[in-house]
Amino acid sequence: MFLVAVVSFVIALASAGLPPTTKDVITIQSQQHPEVSISYKKTCICDTTVNAYAGYVHMPSSYTGESYNASLFFWYFEARNDPEHAPTTMYFAGVPGESSTYAVVSEGGICTVLGDSATTEENAWSYNQYSNVL
Ligand SMILES: *[C@@H]1O[C@H](CO)[C@@H](O)[C@H](O)[C@H]1NC(C)=O
């Protein structure tokens, strides 16, 4: 009976379809470490006045020395003021495994989630006011 339930669940998932293939992803190889690559795409969250990108740094186990491949997620937000000449700040949220989403929508992030949990407003004191933020 359990097996029938599991098979039914898998068939239901399969018929629901997979997420659409990601489009407009750019992948570049590291020049110093060709086995390492970065894939990213332009994105839009909260603050539509700046260029923003989301992606992964892909590091194979042969590079890290670990028993698994690692893909580290990142978000990059250009500074609201003079991004070409602004410094870049690297912001690491919390502890290993903590989602960076929280940092983006709170603290010094680019926006704040409003009380209705569905809308956001720009954070006027965001780190990306005068700095590009990774
Ligand atoms: C890491 O990724 C490569 C390329 O996709 C794959 O051939 C390899 O099996 C993966 N290694 C591990 C430990 O998952």
Q: Could you please describe the fold and organization of this structure?
A:
- With 134 residues, the protein is α+β, with helices and mostly antiparallel strands.
- It has a single domain, classed as Rossmann fold (3-Layer(aba) Sandwich).
- The chain is built from three helices and eight strands.
- The protein has helices at residues 2-16, 61-64, 100-104, and strands at residues 26-29, 37-43, 52-59, 70-77, 88-89, 111-113, 120-122, 132-133.
- A four-stranded antiparallel β-sheet has the order 1-2-3-4.
- The model has no long low-confidence stretch (mean pLDDT 87).
- The structure holds 2-acetamido-2-deoxy-beta-D-glucopyranose.
Could you name the key traits of this structure?
134 residues, alpha+beta, Rossmann fold, four-stranded antiparallel sheet, two-stranded parallel ribbon, 3 helices, 8 strands, 18% helix, globular, binds 2-acetamido-2-deoxy-beta-D-glucopyranose
